[in-house]
Amino acid sequence: MAKEVDTRYTQDRELSWLRFNERVLEEAKDESVPLMERLKFAAIFTSNLDEFFMIRVGSLYDMTLVKEEHIDSRTGQTPEQQLQAIFKAVTPLYKQRDKVVEQLESRLRACNICRMSMDEMDTKERKQVENWFQDEVRPILSPQVVDSRHPFPHLSNKTLNVVLRLESEGQQSLGLIPVPQSLPPYFTLRERGLRYILTEDVILEYAKRLFPAFSVQGKAVASVTRNADISPEDETYEVDEDFRQHMRKIVKKRNRLAPVRLELQGGRDDRAIDFLCRQLNLSREQVFFSKSPLRMKYVFSLEGQLPPESKTALCYPPYTPKASNFLRPEEKVLPQVLHHDVLLFYPFQSMDPFLHLVREASSDPDVLSIKITIYRLASKAKLAEYLCAAAENGKEVTALMELRARFDEQNNIQWAERMEEAGCTILYGAENIKVHSKVCLITRRDKGKIQYITQVGTGNYNEKTAKQYTDLCLMTARPEIGEDAAALFRNMATANMEGNYKQLLVSPYQLRDKCMEHIDREIAKGRDGYIFLKLNSITDRKLIDKLAQASQAGVEVVMNVRGICCLLPGIAGLTDRITVFSIVGRYLEHTRIYRFGRGEDAALYISSADFMTRNTERRVEVACPVLSPEVRKKIFHIIDVLTSDNVKARQLGPDGEWHARKVGSAPCCSQEVFQEEAIQEEQSIPERPAKPKKGKESLWKRLFGRGK
Question: How far apart are the C-alpha atoms of 329 and 700, rounded to whole Å?
Fold first, then answer.
């Protein structure tokens, strides 16, 4: 008999995520956001929904195939019931997105930025498109008739296909034209402004020419979404097979797994839809209709084609990450970190100081080794090049490369090979456990003594996303942190996930228990207790129940949760001391902060871990205590600004819906505050003093002393 689930203060994970994505769509409606940026938010909503179906719906679909019944710990529902709720909730989101895109494109037309249809083009423009189709498109198309003599082909994941219902001599057939991925997403017309037509619309227009023996009864653009929730640990492979080769095979499977969604843009032809559903083994409730383009990534490339005056009016003002006032930019980073802890706050501050630290270490004669955990890298990564240079300079470089980072597997495989060729030691983590921590350890020998420089972050070592995601990066030479980091790398190299650490909180065997101990200490304080958590998501039932217990004991719990929140706040007698808010803005909120207690002596951590079961039980994650008074002061300030946000913040109600906060006399947009503060802090960094005369101390030494 299934265990009864307490659902009084919890909600479904998937529906909570869909509400978060609806929040993204709200940004596309926000009149204070520039028009082109609003269209980008609609595109982000679309790509988010794609990934949701590939991963979450795919995972639930897998669960329906397992004989053992699975009951969700937050809702008490079966996977089948969850899927039904998802399909029901998604349909109105398509309608919302279509309305928003239509309105935005209409307003962009007033700025002479037009997504064109063939019907509205003049003769000259139609000739341009026709020439492009004949010269560039038609030669690489592979039209196919599906009938009794031609079997239904495989439709790859998220590729576009023009689908036609054909008729010849009273016989019905299906026509398919895959849209080649080698083609650009749109064709730009050589006329005034930015006028363009999507490639699939061009193929749709001239599709009849490709089937001259048939009459076209109906046509549309179709896209199949397939289950992409591949778990490499569930796949058997030969013991002597290189794990990289194994992962290549796994990634290839992503295009061939079971369909979970069919999207159609254009006409609704019931006969064609029924045929596609039978071939793809989908129900009609898994078919979704769209007026907007099915693939909207092209939106991000439009900005580069705008004239300067249009870009100024329609896009966010450009922003370059600033220098940190924890560092003197003219000085080397490594000796400064040896002297005092340094905090970087992306994207408001630049990632460059951390990259400079690794580059300096690669050629420092006193550096013995560099160890790092890598989950995601940019396709062009200075960090990886510096690690290769360190290995080529004779340093011991060990990179624990997570090849199972979803959708970045191929990129990580390529970097692993490049780094191994340079002499780096590449490890792949423990079986069944992903390494998601963000830790770099530099070991030096100075005057016969070992020194550690440890970097711990909340985000990936990805130089591209460091300009788009909010994250914290702590660099410290504190020996107690370094010793724990050294033990962590030793343990991971020997697949020992149960190590004990004095300062760091490490999952899968310690982090959750230690956090619950901190919560218990706040519970003991009653109404004097305080907890602040900044997370991307919270789904872990044990932590949810412990936070509810804290609320019931009178502890004030404030949570900044960007996405999924399975905990419902404000339930009388259960979670009424818990406040949950979310911020969606120009930058993706990605920072994880744990604070337990009020005042300056509160326990404070930055972490790679959300409060999700996958983070607490199936991943190596690290939370690092923040011990420097200056760094603690900075993070406390960040918390204060976040909790004051009443512009982009939305508050979660007991009904599971996000509600706008009341804007008082002083509106506060936290990301704008952080951006402006970063500009002011960079301006406040003193210029490098003139080189002192012999016998006199430098200003730097007079201000900060001679070191530890």
Answer: 12
